[in-house]
Specification:
The protein has 4 helices and 5 strands. 28% of the residues lie in helices and 29% in strands. The protein has one domain: 2-Layer Sandwich (Alpha-Beta Plaits), CATH 3.30.70.640. A hairpin with a 5-residue loop joins strand 2 and strand 3. It has a 5-stranded antiparallel sheet. It is an alpha+beta fold. Its EC number is 4.6.1.17. Keywords: Lyase, Molybdenum cofactor biosynthesis. Pathway: Cofactor biosynthesis; molybdopterin biosynthesis.
Length: 163
């Protein structure tokens, strides 16, 4: 017996939330990466905790965590999940041209947390922009993508290995 195909479209072609009730709960994890490019002077102010709006990194970290928990309210047809952990790491990139963002989300449930990790990384980047825009308006947010996913029927995905 094959499992029914999961789709966001019903038999009539209307958008619906996928029914995951028949799927078993498994441990799941997703890691997303993002980047915000900025001038070295702006990065220096952040690292020296000298930005006018306060501790930029702590605020962005908390914003990312909060966003992961609200993903189902932001992304249409996304399942509300009981997230067991969210970690958002922010670090200057090697070139000194910005901040790398890594969001790791875990749950035990019938569906994955890729959207939660992507949302956490995106909102952390947007928060960094918001808190630094008085100093620099031409920052660039990008490179937001899943770098790791594990759990569930589709198994493990690692971007670095392509599988």
């Amino acid at each position: 017996m094959t499992a029914p195909r999961l789709s966001h479209l019903d038999a009539a072609g209307h958008a619906v939330m996928v029914d995951v009730s028949a799927k078993p709960d498994t441990r799941r994890e997703a890691v997303a990466h993002g980047h915000i490019k900025m001038r070295a002077e702006t990065l220096g102010l952040i690292l020296a905790a000298a930005m006018p709006k306060g501790d930029v990194l702590a605020t962005a970290r908390i914003a990312g965590i909060m966003a992961a928990k609200k993903t189902a309210e932001l992304i249409p047809l996304c399942h509300p999940l009981a997230i067991s952990s969210v970690k958002v790491e922010l670090a200057p990139d090697r070139a000194g041209e910005g901040i790398d963002i890594t969001a790791r989300v875990r749950t035990t449930g019938p569906t994955g947390v890729e959207m939660e990790a992507l949302t956490a990384a995106s909102v952390a980047a947007l928060t960094l922009y918001d808190m630094c825009k008085a100093v620099e308006r031409d920052m660039e947010i990008g490179q937001i993508h899943v770098i790791h996913k594990s759990g569930g029927a589709s198994g493990t995905y690692d971007r670095a290995s392509g599988s």
